[in-house]
Design brief:
Chain lengths: 443, 257
Amino acid sequence: MNGRFGEFGGRYISELLVPVLEELEIAFEKAKVDDEFNKKLLHYLTKYAGRETPLYFAENLSKKFGVKIYLKREDLLHTGAHKINNTIGQVLLAKYMGKKRVIAETGAGQHGVATATAAALFGLQCDVYMGSEDAKRQKLNVYRMKILGATVKIIDAGSKTLKDAINEALRDYATNFKDTHYVLGSALGPHPYPSIVKHFQSIIGKEARKQIIEAEGKLPNYLVACVGGGSNAIGLFAPFINDKNVKMIGIEAGGEGIESGKHAARISGDGRKGVLHGSLTYLLQNNDGQIKETHSVSAGLDYPAIGPEHSYLHKIKRASYVSITDAEALEAFHLLSKTEGIIPALESAHAIAYLPKLAKQCNENEIIIVNLSGRGDKDVEIVAKISTDREFSGIRDRQIGDPICGPFFASSEKLEICPTRQTDLTRGQTDVKHMSELEGEKS
Amino acid sequence: MMFVPYVCCGDPNLEFSYQLIKKLAPYSTIIELGIPFSDPIADGKTIQMAANRALKNGVTVEKIFAMIKLLRKEGIKTPFVFMTYYNIVYSYGKEKFLERITTSSVQGIIIPDLPFEEDPEFENLAEKHGIGIVKLIAPNTEEKRAKKILTNEKLFTYLVSTTGTTGAKREIGNESLDFVKRIRKLAGNDKKLYVGFGISNAAQAKEIVNAGADGVIIGSRIIDIYSKFIGTDGEMTIGAIEQVEKFVKEIKGAEND
């Protein structure tokens, strides 16, 4: 069967899209080995987007956790996240296919911005679908897309997040495929999308592999990346898949804790196999096969299905998947900002948050590469809001680590409480239990 | 003219669907029973909203089976085919679902996100259980593939009249009519070609049949008619079924005009 990773993946899609995806697959396979295409792609990735990105040895973080931590700085790319690797590739491909228009879905807004950017660069019309809930929490990115000349189509259906934006983008694609290419932003969806996105994102892992050998003379022990659909993770993992000693860990959104039911942990939570958006993969669904609503503080991880290749890597035990709660991610957001002077995207903060747990199993000479998939500028407003809300709601014990310690621009006196946070990082569980107890009382 | 209505089971509640199916049965060649899915990517606004209402009101696969049992018990003999998305079947268990269909005297299933040959195992299982998988042909389906789909026809072949999603459209374009003619030529006269996606009135139905189709599949338009009768409390008000019946009579009368 075509386009499968073991039993996962496939092309579960309406008959209308069958010839369209076949055409796309042929165009992609051709472009992949086309010298001119690859030369152009490399040109824009280096001169325009800012590749290669540094593999930064995070000194302070390493010292703190007693292990060698390297950060793959995708956050330094143009538009602020790894998403641009894929959009430059796909929009260039769309141009090669003679398409006049591109569409995209977006959760956190990063993929929407990256698509709008590439569309502006290559002179294509661009429409971006975004759930109204996401548009609310990522307002800044909505403006950025508009400034770049894209039309943002706000979707008010279903859970009003990424899932619903993809539904609508697929409907648009099935209607307008003649002149339109759908730039899917993650390693999910029907074949050939998971392979296309992996191909364009693999540059992350290729560079990291070369860079770590230069820096350390050997391969890393661990790779850590957050997983919504899983594009930044598969981009980092792919070039290491045959290096059996390199352990790969994907971090899913634990939301308010698995037991609260408010999360997006498909593999590490209570997902089971099913079909959504063209792929057979692990899904969050109820007993009747209806897709569940998910929750994560980070819009980019707030999605009920995981990319099919991750399901496969999990099944064959090549990669493992764990979850990190909202509270833990928020702490890591502040931790990285304070210790390294890098404000991470809330998505990437999930990967950072796993470090204290992982470091416990490591000796000081072991090497961890974390994919810092995006920068946190887009999240500053939401983090400020959460901190303020919590300050006033009074349900949280400040000792557990309300990271900002009050309204965002709080007095310096309040900010001084923050050093205690460092020990709090491993205590997210306490917080979760507390939250789920509250939930239990309600129901 | 063969007439295949689509009923979104449980919209706005199962009691209404039950009454609607009973009313539609005498006019229908086959009735498509929609099992609502949370993420219906092949459907336009009308069916999306209908599925939402049904799910909100707690419809489940088991409740739909119970409704069918009741309809059969009351002597409704019209063939039924399910229309649902693949995750509903997958989640239930492929073989378990097929077994359940067989014992419920449902004749077939249409799965818009399971294209022909995507899951050969499921196709073989359906064959084994005597369940027909109704396959779709779209205007852009390649001729070679269309031929193969027609050769494997079970119950009938569903022609997707236009690109896009389901939902009533004002006009049936020449492209759609040409498509029907083209497939009829390819199929010969012994294949059953029913056309769906966008057909909303008697004139369109007539055009489609004149172009060579055996019949029409109508869903969104029926929902548009009865959903006007859904009260603010979510319950049906009086008169919806009569309006649907009036519409169906028009469609059925079209060929005699």
